[in-house]
Design a protein that fits this description.
Elements lengths: L1 H12 L11 E2 L14 H11 L3 H4 L3 E12 L2 E12 L2 E8 L3 E6 L4 E3 L26 E3 L10 E5 L5 E6 L6 E10 L2 E15 L2 E13 L2 E14 L13
Amino acid sequence: MKSFFVFAIALFVSTSIQAQPAGGAKQPAADKAAVGTSRSPEDLAKATLAAHGGDKLKKLQTFLVKGSVNVSFQGQALPGAFSTAVSGEKYYFEIVTAVQQLKQVYDGRETSSSLQGFSLPPVTSLGFPLLTKVGDSGYVVTALPDNAKKRNGFRMTTPEGFYTDFVLNEKTGQIKSYEAKWMTGNQTIATSVEIDEFMTVDGIAVPKKYAQRFDLGPLTAYASFNVKDIKINSTIEESAFAIGK
């Protein structure tokens, strides 16, 4: 069970920009949208994209990020390191701890994962990576749901029906936090992220320090991430995405 939470949390919040479709995860029904916000959700989404790099973010070609992560689950702390590399549709994600190494790779054709039998949504379908899709066909921006405590934000939904609720920092216009839910099998999984700090690289503002809560029924895990190195549009060797046979 510990392996499941470490991998699922890390994969979901990785700042990858491209990934392959996933077939097993489903988005639960959306809540009723709120009304009466001072700015339209579409305008908020466009302004948020601009606050994180605008066209530079949308045109991102390759992405490499490395950092540390601390996961707490049922009173146990598990420190480790994580890294993500993305080139077009190819990517790898890896977490290394003192007791375990977890890795998922997509080589453009097939996926290899050290965690078998569990389906996650595409990393572009939830959270920060969705900003790269603002304005794209099929990606719908609406108001936050009625039960949202703060109204300065918007909901973004993918063509597959996955959605994320973004809450914005009123001073900077950047993402302050976000929440999302999805279903795998008969289980509903919910996550919420609080972003403490951004790192700006080549004009793109990427989350640097952030905390995440991850809920699966009665079980809850927490994780704190600290990005230490980000490389934008650098050369990544094809061997990095090779799947071992």
